[in-house]
Structure formats: C-alpha cells, structure tokens
Q: What sequence folds into this?
C-alpha cells in the first residue's frame, strides 16, 4: 500500500526540491517554451491586443516571461508563480515593470484577474492535486484565452494503486480539453468553470521517473460516480 502525503508535506519533499530540474527554459530556441508547447507564447499574445495577460504556473527562473515582457507592449501583464523564487535573480533594475514573479505553492495561490494565456511547462509533474490546479486554471482563463500544460495521465492513480489515465483523459475531454498524447500536452481554449469527477486523496513522492526521465509525483484520486 502506497503511503500518501498531503500537498504541504509534498512541497518539502526531495522530489519537489530536486536541484537538477530544468527551471531555465527561455522563450524560444532549443531549451524553450516555444519548443515544448509547440507555439510561440509571445507571438500568440501579441495578437491579443495592447494589454495581454500571461500567467505561467511553475515558472522556474521566469526566463521565458522576462524575455516575453521585453517583446510585448508595456501594458501587457506577465505573472509567474513558483514554489521557489529565482535562484539567480537579475538585478531589480533589469526586471521589466510588467513582470511579477510570485513565490508561492500553487495550492495556496489564486490570481486577482483573468489571463489570456495560462501555461504550465513541466510543472504539473511535481504537484499533488494536479486535477485541482487544472480545473482552477480553467476558471482563471479569459473567455477566449488558452491554457497549455504538460500532463502525464499515467501519474494519476486510484487509492488501490491502479491507473486512472483513461478515465481522467476522458473526463478532461468531456470538460472541453484537448489532450495531445505525443507531446503530453493538455490544451483548453476558452475559460470556463470545470468540475472533474475525482476527489483528491493524496500524493506519492516516490512514484519514480515519468516520461521526462525525472522523478515525478504520483497523484491519487477517488472516482466519483463509478469512475
Ligand atoms: C521542471 S521545473 C519547470 C520550470 C519552468 N516552467 C521551465 O520550464 O523552465 C518545475 C518547477 O515547478 C515548481 N514547483 C514544484 N512544485 C510546485 C508547487 N507546489 N507550486 C508552485 N511551483 C511548484 C518547481 O519549483 C520548479 O521550478
């Protein structure tokens, strides 16, 4: 029987405090958001008008946001949230005025506004209640906004240890998400309230490496209504 821990215990565990994580992706190029997401976030935001908003969950060093802030109009609002602040923070004078990096656990944080673009690049792998964050992010999205996140359905399990991938992907699709299995990318176009038929039971910090090769978290859920 797997010992499940709470999300507050998880944030102090070695799987989340893993120093070898790639936290430094830039906006474009080899190690980048554009490459991982399959679209250029700044180009996408530029078409949204003079004051687009981008929220990046698990933003790491915030490099992609900082690079985008320099390319987008001054009225753009870019927000990054990460459990750990930048390990190599730039001097304050070098931080663009329209960029805000928040140090917080996602389970304890909510924005004050809606966003045109919400991304989570290889961040869900380290969260316990991944489905809770996905549902909350959908509600923070503008009516014509886009959510894009890397998601590994195999990381979602039932309390007896069996996999819940198929049921979870089916429920996400029923809620309007698209799942691109080859890229492990979950997408939603258009903000909306999302209620998924799963109840969070806890996290397994010792689930082992996922498809990225890095140690990741197992997320355990009880299905509601026979799922
Ligand atoms: C693999 S890194 C990706 C960082 C960034 N998205 C990138 O691609 O460069 C995963 C990030 O998730 C953050 N993280 C892990 N658990 C978190 C939590 N509960 N709340 C917020 N951020 C978290 C880690 O601190 C880490 O910076």
A:
């Amino acid at each position: 029987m797997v010992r499940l821990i709470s999300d507050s215990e998880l944030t102090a565990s070695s799987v989340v405090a893993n120093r070898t994580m790639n936290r430094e992706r830039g906006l474009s190029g080899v190690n980048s958001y554009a490459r991982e997401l399959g679209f250029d976030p700044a180009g996408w935001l530029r078409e949204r008008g003079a004051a687009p908003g981008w929220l990046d969950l698990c933003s790491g060093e915030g490099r992609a946001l900082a690079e985008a802030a320099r390319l987008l109009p001054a009225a753009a609002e870019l927000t990054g949230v990460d459990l750990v602040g930048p390990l190599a923070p730039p001097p304050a004078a070098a931080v663009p005025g329209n960029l805000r990096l928040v140090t917080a656990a996602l389970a304890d944080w909510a924005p004050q506004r809606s966003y045109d673009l919400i991304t989570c690049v290889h961040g869900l792998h380290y969260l316990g209640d991944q489905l809770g964050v996905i549902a909350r992010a959908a509600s923070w999205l503008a009516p014509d906004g886009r959510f894009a996140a890397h998601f590994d359905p195999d990381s979602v399990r039932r309390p007896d240890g069996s996999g819940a991938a198929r049921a979870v992907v089916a429920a996400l699709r029923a809620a309007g998400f698209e799942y691109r299995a080859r890229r492990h990318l979950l997408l939603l176009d258009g903000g909306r309230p999302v209620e998924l038929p799963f109840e969070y039971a806890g996290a397994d910090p010792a689930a082992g490496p996922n498809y990225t090769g890095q140690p990741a978290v197992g997320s355990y859920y009880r299905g509601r209504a026979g799922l």
Notes: Residues 56 and 212 are 20 Å apart (CA to CA). Residues 1-23+44-86+105-194 form a domain with the Rossmann fold fold (CATH 3.40.50). The first strand starts at residue 53 and ends at 57. The longest helix spans residues 130-139.
